[in-house]
Specification:
Elements (H helix, E strand, L loop, with lengths): L3 H9 L3 H7 L21 E3 L21 E2 L5 H6 L3 H17 L4 E3 L22 H16 L4 E7 L12 E3 L2 H19 L3 E4 L3 E2 L2 E2 L4 H11 L5 E4 L7 H7 L11 H12 L4 H19 L12 H15 L1 E5 L12 E4 L17 E2 L5 H7 L4 E4 L11 H13 L2 E7 L18 H13 L3 E6 L14 E4 L7 H9 L32 E3 L8 H6 L17 E8 L3 E3 L4 E9 L5 E11 L10 E10 L4 E8 L1 H4 L1 E3 L4 E3 L3 E10 L2 E11 L14 H5 L2 H14 L7 H6 L2 H9 L6 H4 L6 H16 L2
Parallel strand pairs: 1-3, 2-12, 3-4, 4-6, 5-7, 5-17, 6-9, 11-13, 11-14, 14-15, 15-16, 19-27
Antiparallel strand pairs: 7-8, 10-16, 18-20, 20-23, 21-22, 21-26, 24-25, 26-27
C-alpha cells in the first residue's frame, strides 16, 4: 500500500508518454507496468460466476481455454434464489479463487435490466426489477471484496441487448433511466463501493457510454459518490481523450499504444490539461497499489475446489424454480419406476456462452448423481442437444421407456447456440424437436415432468399437458447434484422468478421496439418494464414475477406497520409473521410491494421494495422485518431532477409473488413536495389546483367570474356535472375573458398571475 503522497511523487517522476500508457491495458487482462518507476501490473479477469483467467491465448468471448475453475449458477438463477446471503457466499468463494490466482479484479456482477426476454445475455443478468438486481449485486460485491479483491459492476449503463451492441443508442426518458436502468447500479455503488465499474459499449441517448460525462461523472461520481475507477468494456472506447474527460479511467484491453499516443497529442495540443491526466493516473495507481498488496502471497490463499463445488451445489438447489407441480408429482420417491429423457440429464447445459464461459474443474449431470446413489433409472436421449431435427427413432425410444415408467422426467431447454453474448434471440421458442418429444411422451406417460435448462424465458405450449415443470436455468457445474436434491425431496425448491414469463413474446412491453432500427432503440415502454407493464395492463402471464412453488405451504399473518401516518423522510418498519404449515422443512422468499393508491403521477400498480428469505421447519413461525425509507415510495421527478414522494395513501403488500398478495395495510404519507412551476395565461385550472397555496388564490379569482344566474332548462340538459367539472378543470386562465360575461379583465388575470407566481417562486 502506498500513501497518496507517495503515489503523487511517483507520478511527478513520469514522462507524459508513461502517464498515457497507464491509462490503458498492457495486454488483454493486465494493466501497464513501469518497473523502473516502481509501478507494478495487476490482472483483471472475467466473471461473473466463475473465474475465467486466461494465461495463454486471450479473448473476450470465452473461446480460448482458461484455467480450471468452479462454475457457479448463472446470474439469472442467482437472482431467483432471492437469497442475498447465498449470493454473498458465492462472492466470497470467487474472491478466494481470485486471491489464489493473483487476480486483482473480477469482472462482475452483470446487472443490466432484462428489458426483453430476447437479450442474448439475459442468462448473465439478474432481473427485470432494479431493486432485486441492486440488493443481490450489493451482496455479491461485498462478498468478493471482503477478500480484498475488486469487482467491476457491469455494463454501465442501459445495455439491454446484444444486437449492434457497440453502436446502438438506447434512447429513454430521464425517469426510466433513473427508476429502472440506473437503479440496479446505484444500490451497489452507494452501499458496497465496488472498486471498479465497467462502462458499456452502447450509446445512451446518443452519447457513447465510455464518453458519457453525465453517466460517468455527474451521476456516478458526483451524485452517488463513486471513488473507484471506471474501466471500459473491451473495445468500448472511440475517442480516448473524450472518454478520459468524461470520467473513464482505464481503457481495456490494450490498443497497442495507439490510444496512448492520442492522449499525448491531446496534452500537447492543449485539448487535455496534463493535470487531468495526472488525476487519472492517481486514481488508477491507487487501485494498482492497493490490489498489488495481494499479489505474491497467493500461496496463503489455498482453497479447496471440491468445497466450492459443494457450495455450488447448495446454491444451485436454491436457483431452481418449481413452476408447476400438479398432484405433487414432485418430489419423487427413490423406489418409483423413473424414466429420464433428454441429453441434458447426461451432459447438462449449465452455463452460458461468451465472456462468462468457465473452464469447469468438474461437471455433474443428474444421471451421474443418480447412479452414484444407486437409483434405478431407464434413460433415452429423445432428441439431439444441438440440432433441431426431429429424430423419429430417438423419440420412439423415449416414448417406449415412458410407457413403462411411473413418471418421466424430460430434461429439455435451449441449446447453447440459442442464447449467448454477442447476439439476441429472435423468438422465445424451444427447439421444435424437443416440443414434439414432450408432446408424444405426455400423451402416453403416467406422469410427466419437464426439467428446463435455459438462460431466459421460453414459451411453453406443453404447459397443460405435463404434470410438473422445474425451471433449472443454467445451474453451474454442480447442477446434477442440486437436481438430485430437489427432485427426490432432500430439499424443497425455493427459487422465485426474478422475471416475468410472458405467455408469448408479443406480450412483452419492448416487443415493438426491440432491437430497434439502424442505430437506435427507443425505450418507448418507459418505466413499464416486466411486471410493471403486465400488471398495469391486467394481462395474463405464463408465470408472474416472484412466482415459485414449494413442497411445503406457508401462512402469512400479523402484518404490522410501525406507523400509520408519516412524513416522506421518516422510516417505516413493516413486520410480518410467516409459518410453515406444511410437512417439510422449506425456505420461502417473503416479498414486499408498495402501491401508490391515488397518485396523479403515472405509476406502476405495485413495485417490489423488500424481500427476505427464511428457512422454516414444519410448524415453525418466524417474524420478518423490513425497513422502508423515502426511496421505497418515491418516483423520479424530472421537474426537480430528484426523487419525490407525492402525499397520499400507500399500500404495503406482502406476497408470495407479485400476483399473489397475502396481506396488505396502508400508510398515509405527507410530503411537502411542491414542484417548481410558472403560471401564464394558458395555464389550466387543473394544473393550478395541484398546489394548495395556489388553489386558495384561484378561489378568489373564480368567485369573481362565477355565474350566479339560474340556468335555463336547455343549459341544464346540455351540460351535466361531469362536463361542467371538465370544462372548469381544463379551462386556461384566459378563458375568464370570454366566459365571465365580461367580469374578468386582463388586469384581473395579471393580478392573479403576479400573486401566484410570487408564491411559487418564494419572492
Ligand atoms: C464483455 C464483458 C467482458 C469483457 C472481457 C466483453 O466482450 O462484454 O462483459 O468482461 O468482454 O472478456
Amino acid at each position: 500500500m502506498k500513501s497518496i503522497e507517495e503515489i503523487k511523487d511517483i507520478i511527478a517522476g513520469l514522462t507524459l508518454e508513461e502517464k498515457a500508457s497507464l491509462c490503458s491495458g498492457d495486454t488483454f487482462w493486465l494493466t501497464h507496468e513501469i518497473p523502473e518507476k516502481g509501478i507494478p501490473k495487476i490482472m483483471v479477469s472475467d466473471g461473473p460466476v466463475g473465474l475465467r483467467k486466461q494465461e495463454n491465448i486471450e479473448d473476450h468471448l470465452g473461446m480460448n481455454e482458461s484455467i480450471k475453475a468452479v462454475c457457479f449458477p448463472a446470474g439469472v438463477g442467482m437472482a431467483a434464489t432471492f437469497n442475498k446471503d447465498l449470493y454473498g457466499k458465492m462472492g466470497e468463494a470467487l474472491g478466494e479463487e481470485c486471491r489464489a490466482e493473483n487476480v486483482a479484479v473480477i469482472l462482475g456482477p452483470a446487472v443490466n435490466i432484462k428489458r426483453s426476454p430476447l437479450c442474448g445475455r439475459n442468462f448473465e443478468y439478474l432481473s427485470e426489477d432494479p431493486f432485486l438486481a441492486s440488493e443481490m449485486s450489493t451482496s455479491y460485491v461485498k462478498g468478493v471484496q471482503s477478500k480484498h479483491v475488486g469487482t467491476s459492476i457491469k455494463h454501465f449503463a442501459v445495455n439491454n441487448m446484444e444486437t449492434r451492441r457497440f453502436s446502438a443508442s438506447s434512447n429513454l426518458s430521464e425517469r426510466a433511466l433513473r427508476e429502472i436502468y440506473l437503479a440496479a447500479f446505484e444500490g451497489p455503488v452507494r452501499n458496497a463501493k465496488p472498486w471498479t465499474v465497467m462502462c458499456s459499449y452502447n450509446r445512451i441517448n446518443g452519447v457513447l457510454a465510455s464518453q458519457n460525462k453525465k453517466i460517468l461523472t455527474d451521476i456516478l461520481r458526483n451524485e452517488w459518490g463513486f471513488e473507484g475507477n471506471v474501466i471500459s468494456d473491451w473495445g468500448a472506447v472511440s475517442d480516448r481523450t473524450k472518454a478520459l474527460k468524461a470520467g473513464l479511467n482505464l481503457e481495456m484491453p490494450t490498443s497497442y499504444g495507439e490510444n496512448d499516443k492520442k492522449l499525448v497529442e491531446a496534452v500537447r495540443s492543449g485539448e487535455l490539461d496534463e493535470k487531468e491526466l495526472d488525476e487519472n493516473c492517481l486514481s488508477l495507481l491507487k487501485l494498482v497499489f492497493d490490489a498489488y498488496d495481494n499479489i505474491g502471497n497467493s500461496e496463503d490463499f489455498k482453497f479447496d475446489r471440491d468445497e466450492h463445488h459443494k457450495l455450488a451445489r447448495e446454491i444451485a438447489s436454491e436457483t431452481f424454480v418449481l413452476l408447476k407441480n400438479e398432484d405433487n408429482v414432485l418430489p419423487l420417491s427413490k423406489d418409483q419406476k423413473i424414466a429420464v429423457v433428454g441429453p441434458y440429464a447426461k451432459n447438462p447445459r449449465y452455463q452460458g456462452g461468451g465472456s462468462a464461459h468457465i473452464n469447469c474443474h468438474k461437471i455433474e449431470g443428474f444421471l451421474q448423481v443418480c447412479s452414484e446413489n444407486n437409483i434405478n433409472i431407464s434413460y433415452a436421449e429423445g432428441f439431439s442437444p444441438v440440432a433441431d431435427d426431429f429424430d423419429e427413432k430417438l423419440c420412439e425410444e423415449a416414448v417406449n421407456i415412458s410407457k413403462e415408467a411411473d413418471v418421466t422426467l424430460i430434461f429439455a431447454g435451449l441449446p447453447d447456440i440459442f442464447e449467448s453474448e454477442g447476439y439476441d434471440r429472435k423468438h422465445m421458442q424451444m427447439p421444435s424437436c424437443q416440443l414434439k418429444v414432450i408432446e408424444e411422451i405426455s400423451r402416453v406417460a403416467k406422469k410427466t415432468v419437464v426439467v428446463l435448462h435455459n438462460g431466459s424465458p421460453v414459451e411453453m405450449p406443453f404447459i397443460y399437458d405435463v404434470d410438473g415443470i422445474l425451471e433449472c436455468y443454467l445451474g453451474g457445474q454442480a447442477v446434477g447434484g442440486a437436481q438430485y436434491d430437489i427432485i427426490f425431496g432432500d430439499k424443497s425448491p425455493s427459487g422465485k422468478l426474478a422475471e416475468t414469463f410472458p405467455v408469448m413474446l408479443e406480450d412483452n412491453p419492448s416487443y415493438l421496439n426491440f432491437p430497434g432500427t439502424r442505430n437506435n432503440v427507443n425505450y418507448a415502454e418507459d418505466i413499464f418494464v416486466g411486471y410493471r407493464y403486465y400488471d398495469k395492463k391486467k394481462m395474463d402471464v405464463l408465470f408472474p414475477f416472484g412466482f415459485g412453488l414449494s413442497y411445503s405451504e406457508f401462512k402469512y399473518d400479523n402484518l404490522r406497520l410501525s406507523r400509520k401516518e408519516m412524513n416522506d423522510t421518516d422510516e417505516l418498519e413493516v413486520s410480518v409473521d410467516i409459518t410453515n404449515i406444511g410437512k417439510v422443512e422449506a425456505k420461502e422468499a417473503v416479498q414486499l410491494y408498495v402501491k401508490n393508491c391515488e397518485s396523479e403521477i403515472i405509476r406502476p400498480v405495485r413495485e417490489f421494495k423488500g424481500f427476505e428469505k427464511v428457512n422454516l421447519l414444519p410448524g415453525e413461525t418466524k417474524t420478518v422485518t423490513f425497513k422502508l425509507n423515502k426511496r421505497s415510495f418515491a418516483y423520479y421527478e424530472e421537474r426537480i431532477s430528484d426523487w419525490a414522494v407525492p402525499s397520499g395513501t400507500y399500500e404495503i403488500e406482502i406476497g408470495k409473488s407479485s400476483r399473489s398478495i397475502e396481506l396488505s395495510d396502508s400508510v398515509n404519507i405527507k410530503s411537502d413536495l411542491i414542484l417548481p412551476d410558472f403560471y401564464e395565461y394558458d395555464t389550466i385550472s387543473e394544473h393550478l389546483l395541484q398546489d394548495p397555496r395556489i388553489a386558495e388564490v384561484l378561489k378568489e379569482y373564480y368567485n369573481k367570474m362565477r355565474d350566479d344566474r339560474e340556468k335555463s332548462d336547455v343549459e341544464k340538459e346540455s351540460m351535466n356535472e361531469e362536463m361542467e367539472n371538465a370544462s372548469f378543470l381544463y379551462s386556461p386562465l384566459r378563458s375568464g375573458l370570454y366566459f365571465s360575461a365580461g367580469k374578468i379583465k386582463y388586469s384581473d388575470i395579471d393580478e392573479f398571475l403576479e400573486k401566484a407566481n410570487s408564491i411559487i417562486s418564494g419572492k
